[in-house]
Specification:
Amidase signature (AS) enzymes, alpha/beta, 2 domains, globular, two-stranded antiparallel sheet, eleven-stranded mixed β-sheet
Length: about 475
């Protein structure tokens, strides 16, 4: 099946003219049509345009870049010119919002000839950990369709794991690339804040949002990152550091690599199977010559509380633009107050409303100092924990999630339980560091388990090198669901 190829494999075959871009694109389209009824991972299909682009690439006959002619899917918060982009929210879906411009990331992918197949499902405006808050319905895990694919990039992760595309784009604010990658058994990278441009990507929490790739291997992720990373004049938060050749950084050699194992990530309530497989992965690194040591990140226990004050506060600001006046859903009303009430009541789902209310409360007079300011102070302490740790170690290993993929509906009526699913993935955004999720085992229920490899700011080369070495020593990344 051509859609099961990695980017590296597909590029070789395209370059040697063993396959055509049109054949590869058609294979992905056929796979989407075959499996997506069960998964619900793709919400906007761009098939005709994709096939036209594929034919043009074939007629040109050259594949100068590793991503030339490679079909991919994009999370439904990336603006693409002429393609519906709704953030899986009725406030945009009801008027079929179509952006007149491209995000920097999709623009850079177009420039090298990557082929966009369409948009993937996400929690509404990326708010969630299960892709259950989407107005298009839940995306299901390809390993067990009674379970969630994770969130908020659940559609992207499920599509990659199910071989519906060769790679996908996601966003990670509090684990939204890493957690679904862990649940679905693919590879996902949260980049250092500022490593990639957020221009043209709908914001949830602007000081925490990052955009990044999900792929089938670490090598594929390295190639994607090398294409989309770098300074962007349209995004002042992007860093000026040069973009290294991430693919060249991949070696099997991790001898002498200093690995930290934080005791705060092996806590009461973690699934014993998750701990077992993560500790087995740590043992693999030791066999490869890495040196491990226990470390402490003492303020980790405050991360969930701090995160769920800071994020709703930023949400309350970012969601204010969706009023149905310039674009989006609109309603008839007697006056302006009734209009706003009607538009936002009908347009936003429960989770978005919940975060707007929490954030508005936390930022209100009399509560700003008690909540928001204190949360920002805790954020600083968490960042300092990592700064101290990275003076002694090169990477930090931990689980991605305390459990494998949970059942659809398990936390629907308990938002606090849903928030706690992020317990291992929200400290890194608060610190602005990079972290990689790769498969490291399977549960007795045949569900993937993810290993999280954290690195210092701008430490993507080290994280990818470590992940690639582990991948070469194991076979977990080669397992695929039977659909």
């Amino acid at each position: 099946m051509l859609s099961s190829l990695t980017i590296a494999q597909a590029h070789t075959k395209l370059s040697k003219k063993e396959i055509s871009c049109e054949e590869l694109t058609r294979a992905c389209i056929e796979r989407i049509e075959s499996v997506d009824t069960a998964l619900n991972s793709v919400v906007h299909r761009n098939f005709e345009r994709a096939l036209e682009e594929a034919k043009n690439i074939d007629s040109n006959g050259e594949f100068p870049h590793p991503l030339t002619g490679i079909p991919y899917l994009t999370k439904d918060v990336y603006c693409e010119e002429g393609i519906p982009t709704t953030a899986c929210s009725n406030i945009l879906r009801n008027k079929d919002y179509v952006p007149p411009f491209d995000s920097t990331t999709t623009e850079r992918l177009k420039a090298v000839g990557a082929v966009s197949l369409g948009k993937t499902n996400t929690d509404e405006f990326t708010m969630g950990a299960s892709t259950e808050s989407s107005c298009y319905g839940v995306t299901r895990c390809p390993w067990d369709t009674t379970r969630v694919a994770g969130g908020s990039s659940g559609g992207s992760a499920a599509a990659v794991a199910a071989d519906a595309c060769l790679f996908a784009l996601g966003t990670d604010t509090g684990g939204s690339i890493r957690q679904p990658a862990g649940f679905c058994g693919c590879t996902g990278l949260r980049v250092t804040y500022g490593r990639t441009s957020r221009y043209g990507v709908m914001s949830m929490a602007s000081s925490l949002d990052t955009i990044g790739p999900l792929g089938k291997t670490v090598e594929d992720v390295a190639m994607i990152l090398g294409t989309i990373a770098g300074k962007d004049p349209k995004d002042v938060t992007t860093g000026s550091l040069p973009v290294p050749d991430y693919r060249k950084a991949l070696t099997k050699d991790v001898k002498g690599l200093r690995i930290g194992v934080p005791k705060e990530y092996f806590i009461e309530g973690i699934d014993p199977q998750v701990e077992e497989h993560v500790r087995s992965a740590i043992a693999v690194f030791e066999k490869l010559g890495a040196v491990t040591r226990e470390i402490t990140l003492p303020h980790t226990k405050y991360a969930v509380a701090a995160y769920y004050i800071i994020v709703p506060s930023e949400v309350s600001s970012n969601m204010a633009r969706y009023d149905g006046i310039r674009f989006g859903h609109s309603e008839k009303a007697a006056d302006l107050v009734d209009y706003y009430h009607a538009v936002r009541s009908a347009g936003f789902g429960d989770e978005v409303k919940r975060r707007i209310m929490i954030g508005t409360y936390a930022l209100s007079a009399g509560y700003y100092d008690a909540y928001y300011r204190h949360a920002q102070k805790v954020r600083t302490l968490i960042r300092r924990d990592f700064e101290e740790a990275f003076k002694e170690v090169d990477v930090i290993l931990a689980p991605v999630s305390p459990t494998p993929a949970f059942l659809v509906g398990a936390h629907t009526d308990d938002p606090v339980a849903m928030y706690l699913e992020d317990v291992f993935t929200i400290s890194q955004p608060l610190a602005g560091i990079t972290a990689l999720s790769i498969p490291c085992g399977m549960s007795k229920e045949n569900l993937p388990i993810g290993l999280q490899i954290m690195g210092n700011q701008w430490g993507e080369e080290t994280v990818l090198r470590a992940g690639h070495a582990y991948e070469q020593a194991t076979e977990w990344h080669t397992l695929t669901p039977q659909l």
